[in-house]
């Protein structure tokens, strides 16, 4: 029995010892397992370090080779310079060559100016010459009106308008060359339709400030001077100017006639022999409603019955349809084009509008032409004669103003 109890005690002690060993081995197994899981990262880090070491060694070897090459090259250099002659010391100090710098600067400035001029010319989209106007508009050329100087001293204006007043033949400008130019225009209009003479026309332009009112007024004067009974109607009920040109009141005019407020005899005024002017009258809130009415059509019929020729001064085509509406009630539209004012986009837009609306365009008159830019073939007289007349006109205008 004692032997059996001793064996049990010993076995129990062995069991406890084995359990402790198992626990120790389990802990060591976990530790080894954790170390084993970190081995791939350590291997990757080791490989990265090896790559960096190899790159550093390669760079070092390259740099070492370059140093050796430079050292060899320095050792091979042999001085080969020698003094041919010594510099001469001038007796007087030499200053900067100002004349050369001035000439060079002037030449460089001229070169830049030419480049700038060509650049501005390329960027400028305006119609500059008669030839360009004909190519863009592609309508019959009926007249060319020479331009006066635009220096501001040759145009008089009145309070309330932001543009110079047009000049009238015989009153403000001489018959040569301006009166002759308008006589050619009226003659071309006369022979434009041989089977049915023109009785009424609309004068308009692509944009404002091309001189449509000036052309309308002077064309009326030119026709009146050959004995035709002419009625000049200011149909621009937005920015009328004919009453300023002829120094009339605008209290009664076309708008009053359309709404039957006054009679025709009370509204029309004779400003010179054979020339009668109908001002625009009181400015309405909606000019289109008055112009596009049966009453307006009746008035035009009465005008053409009582007068040999009727000229309507209308707003520009850009932004309004007044000229197009009146053109449908008359024999056609005369388009004024001023080089240097209208650009290619506006001219093309006006032509497209006239084409799409089916307007009868009689032709174009080029206004304010710079005779220095045009060939002699465009004028009946030589450019020298025209320039001399324009210069004399400008000088006389300055004398009158003084």
Tell me, what's the shape? elongated
CATH class designation of one domain: Alpha Beta
Q: Per DSSP, what share of the residues sits in E-state strands of 2 or more residues?
A: 5-15%
SS element count, helices: 13
CATH topology tier name of one domain:
Rossmann fold
| Mean of pLDDT | 84
Helical fraction equals 40-55%
Termini separation = 158 Å
CATH architecture descriptor name of one domain: 3-Layer(aba) Sandwich
- Strand count, sense and closure of the main sheet? 8 strands, mixed
The parts where pLDDT drops under 50 for at least 5 residues are 151-155, 398-402
Integer-rounded radius of gyration: 48 Å
Can you walk me through this structure?
This protein is α/β, with parallel strands linked by helices. The chain has a domain at 127-401: 3-Layer(aba) Sandwich (Rossmann fold). It is 52% helix and 11% strand. It has 13 helices and 8 strands. The chain has helices spanning 2-76, 98-123, 130-137, 175-190, 212-225, 242-245, 254-258, 264-267, 287-291, 294-306, 322-327, 344-356, 383-401, and strands spanning 141-146, 200-205, 230-234, 269-272, 275-278, 309-313, 333-337, 361-369. It has an 8-stranded mixed sheet with strand order 1-8-7-2-6-3-5-4, with helices on both faces. Strand 4 and strand 5 (275-278) form a beta hairpin. It starts with a helix and ends with a helix.
């Amino acid at each position: 029995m004692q032997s059996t109890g001793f064996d049990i005690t010993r076995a129990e002690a062995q069991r406890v010892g084995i359990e402790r060993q198992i626990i120790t081995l389990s802990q060591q197994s976990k530790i080894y397992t954790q170390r084993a899981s970190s081995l791939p990262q350590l291997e990757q880090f080791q490989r990265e370090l090896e790559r960096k070491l190899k790159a550093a060694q390669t760079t070092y070897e390259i740099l070492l080779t370059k140093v050796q090459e430079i050292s060899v090259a320095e050792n091979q250099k042999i001085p080969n310079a020698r003094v041919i002659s010594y510099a001469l010391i001038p007796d007087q100090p030499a200053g900067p060559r100002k004349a050369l710098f001035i000439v060079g600067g002037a030449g460089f400035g001229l070169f830049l100016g030419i480049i700038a001029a060509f650049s501005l010319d390329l960027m400028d989209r305006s119609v500059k010459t008669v030839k360009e106007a004909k190519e863009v508009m592609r309508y019959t050329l009926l007249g060319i009106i020479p331009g006066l100087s635009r220096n501001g001293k040759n145009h008089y204006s009145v309070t309330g308008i932001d543009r110079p007043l047009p000049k009238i033949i015989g009153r403000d400008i001489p018959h040569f060359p301006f009166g002759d130019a308008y006589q050619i225009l009226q003659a071309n209009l006369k022979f434009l339709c041989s089977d049915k003479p023109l009785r009424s026309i609309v004068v308009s332009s692509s944009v404002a400030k091309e001189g449509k009112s000036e052309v309308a007024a002077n064309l009326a004067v030119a026709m009146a001077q050959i004995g035709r009974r002419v009625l000049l109607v200011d149909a621009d009920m937005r920015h009328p100017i004919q009453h300023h040109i002829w120094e009339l009141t605008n209290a009664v005019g076309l708008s009053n006639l359309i709404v039957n407020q006054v009679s025709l005899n009370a509204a029309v005024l004779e400003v010179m022999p054979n020339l009668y002017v109908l001002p625009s009258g009181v400015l309405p809130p909606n000019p289109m409603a008055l112009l596009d009415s049966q009453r307006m059509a009746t008035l035009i019929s009465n005008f053409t019955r009582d007068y040999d020729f009727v000229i309507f001064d209308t707003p520009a085509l850009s932004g309004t349809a007044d000229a197009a509406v009146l053109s449908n009630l008359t024999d056609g539209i005369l388009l004024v084009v001023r080089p240097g004012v209208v650009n290619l986009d506006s001219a093309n837009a006006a032509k497209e509008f006239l084409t799409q609306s089916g307007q009868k365009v009689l032709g174009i008159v080029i206004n304010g032409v710079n005779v220095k830019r045009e060939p002699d073939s465009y004028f009946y007289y030589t450019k020298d004669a025209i320039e001399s007349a324009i210069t004399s006109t400008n000088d006389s205008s300055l004398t009158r103003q003084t």
